[in-house]
Amino acid sequence: MLKKLQTKFILILMSFVSVILLSVFGIVCCSNYVHDKKDVERSLEMALRLKDKDFSISFGNSRNFNGNSFVIYTDSDYEYMITSRTVWNIYAEDAQSLIESVEHKEDVGVLKKLGFAYKKEKITNYQVNEDTLIPSGYAVAFVDISNMQSSFQRMLIISVQIGSSVLLVFFILSCILSKWALKPVEQAWDKQKQFVADASHELKTPLTVILADSDVLLNHSTESISSQKKWIESIQSEANRMRKLVENMLFLAKNDANRIEISMQNCSLSDICFHCVLPFESIAFEKGIDLIDEVEENIEVHGNESQLKQLILIFLDNAIKYTPKGGKIYFKLAKIQNKPVLTIRNTDSYIPPEDLKHVFERFYRVDKSRKYQGGAGLGLSIASQIAQSHKIKLSVTSDEKQGTEFTLNF
């Protein structure tokens, strides 16, 4: 998929550049062609108006007529009679050949192979000079356009060369840019594949347990309900675990799609922290963990109370899970430089530096160093999403002596 996307990106970019280059070079070539055509038309018109004048003398300083124009006179049967005085040395045979080339053509045209543009004009009783009178015939003006043709061809060749070079450079740049531009997409795609694989793995475990317990119940269907109670409780426990996992995944999916509507309002962060810590005191007591809380009163923030509660519960739940018996959890809410700061630190819990930067990734768990595992590894990822939507800066530090500390700067 990414290869197709990259190819599509390159094709779109190259098409865009090609259209621009064709437009630019097309406009330049067309404007030059129109300009040259007008020059030729003016030269032909001027040559016919002056007819027998000496062009080499009259127009020696003009860029349009400097030896480029001449007029050939013929009778009514297109038989050569005389050529106007010019710097061109035209023999009668050559002049007759030119006349024959235009005899059956339109009044104005171009002889591409010969490199001339021409224009015919009918004349009657025209006195060319003292010795020549044309009762009825034609005056055919010619302009040499061979240099214009060569210049135009050179311009086309140069345009093609420049265009090809620019396209090659842009092709190389587009390949580099496509890799750079699609890098976030590639990372997102890899994360999505990893997410699906991890989710499948996490769902497989409770499903396996539920199916196994169901088989046990079917094989012992004649036994009393009391003897089957442990299998039923196991199924219920795994089903609840699966439901929580699915809810967490749905939350992350909706958050990725920006489909979660959050209603923000002023709420008491002090009260939220107090209500979150209260139920964990009994859990910590049963596990032999000392939970020390210090909550400053009357601290308010702007946010969603339900999500803020979920955010704090995730950190407290993690602290309980990853603190061994005899350890301590420090929970503190205070204002620092007039801004609320919440810290949760649990002792005897260490995350190596190479794993610390991954703690907020989905399904990530530090299996090598954390012996007290629990959950599917989605809690901190959800916490990160909630913090991001509330513009809360999350940071984490870990030390072998002090333990692991999460800081929430509101």
From TrEMBL:
Q: What class of enzyme is it?
A: transferase
Boundaries of every Histidine kinase domain copy: 198-410
Cellular localization per UniProt: Membrane
EC numbers listed for it are 2.7.13.3
Sorted alphabetically, which InterPro entries does this protein's record hold?
BphY/WalK/GraS-like, HATPase_C_sf, HATPase_dom, His_kinase_dom, HisK_dim/P_dom, HisK_dim/P_sf, Sig_transdc_His_kin-like_C
> Which biological process, per GO, is one annotated for this protein?
cellular response to phosphate starvation
GO function term, MF aspect, one: phosphoprotein phosphatase activity
Report the GO terms under cellular component: plasma membrane
Superkingdom per UniProt: Bacteria
Keywords assigned by UniProt, alphabetized: Kinase, Membrane, Phosphoprotein, Transferase, Transmembrane, Transmembrane helix, Two-component regulatory system
Report which reactions are catalysed by this protein: ATP + protein L-histidine = ADP + protein N-phospho-L-histidine
Segments crossing the lipid bilayer: 9-34, 156-177
Q: One matching Pfam family, short form? A: HisKA
Give the protein name, as stated in the record.
histidine kinase
Q: Which organism is it from?
A: Holdemanella biformis DSM 3989
